Amino acid sequence: MASTISVNSVTASSTLGPFYNANNLINGAGLSGGLHDNDFHSMWLNTGGTTATLIFDLGATYTLDSTSVWNYNSPIGLTRSVNNFNILTSTDGVNYSLAESISALPMGTGNPIAADVISLSNLTASFVEFQILSNYGGGYTGLSAVQFDGTPSTPDTVTPEPSYGWLMLALMAGGYFAVRRRLAA
Question: Residue 117: phi, psi to the nearest 5?
Fold first, then answer.
């Protein structure tokens, strides 16, 4: 069953000052009851421009179900909200594959907002990259929060042939009877 992943870290191509820290995207700041507030202190913003890159290190390999994205939501500068972006995934942090292209993430409202949930179609990933391509016209670009839902991927395990168990029982039983015969002698 899928659950919210505790993201290990997030790296931004740029971050505007200490108030707009990229860690605000993953630390739960501003979130309450599934809604994100409108306090800019709990959001991330780049140093300027309409593009940016965010890389989320999930800390392990997961089968992803979805990502929840709360757009930039400060009433001062709603045009800073992300409009178009690509979601890429990777298992090694080097080679990324395009997972989804989002053509119009709804702009923040300045009032508490719910997340936009984007299906990731059971992709396997250890890293997720957001390539932000445009905003709604502001001089900066930002987001309020990001979460991922999924299940830990488990490595393939080798299941012994059914005859292996019987062989082990036979060997153990033979050893038991051999020891018992020696003790009886």
Answer: -100, 125
Q: What mean pLDDT is predicted for residues 106-115? A: 98
pTM (global) more than 0.85: no
The CATH number assigned to the domain holding 121 equals 2.60.120.260
Sign, CA torsion 134/136/137/142:
negative
Structure tokens of 71?
């757009």
Q: Is residue 162 part of a domain?
A: no
Dist. CA 35–CA 112, nearest whole Å: 6
Total tally of structural domains belonging to the chain: 1
| CB-based contacts of 158, cutoff 8 Å, min separation 6 | none
Q: Are 179 and 92 in contact (CB under 8 A)?
A: no
Q: For residues 146 and 71, what is the distance between their CA atoms, to the nearest angstrom?
A: 9
- Angle, vertex CA 112, rays to CA 111 and CA 117, nearest 5: 120
